[in-house]
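hey so u asked for the seq, here:
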Amino acid sequence: MTFQRIVVALLLLIVAGISAIGYFEWRIAVQARTLKAFVEGYVFNEAVMACEQAKSSTPFKWNGGKSTSVIGLNSVKPDKYNVFASYTLVADGVYCDYDPIKRKAEIGASFLERE
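ran it, structure tokens below
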């Protein structure tokens, strides 16, 4: 009888632990989505202005574009110490990568091939 009580108690502890882990993981995921949405909203206007003013043979026209979409905030970690962020917009098939840290836009650039 004592063995059964110990097994049931351990099972309940395991279920409670897994439930707590799931709850905290969900809370952190919600906070991360909220933070990402805030950052994307903060960067959006700067990205549009920088992309429209960037010098390129292919013009980027967000305002007045027929087909526009936001790919969003991306990041690449090429090594242990560096993280490169990019906010990508597409207008009429023209890609624009905006670097929110350097506040620079590159039209038609592939984010993964940046220096």
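Residues 2-53 form the longest helix (52 residues). The longest strand covers residues 68-76.
lmk if thats what u needed
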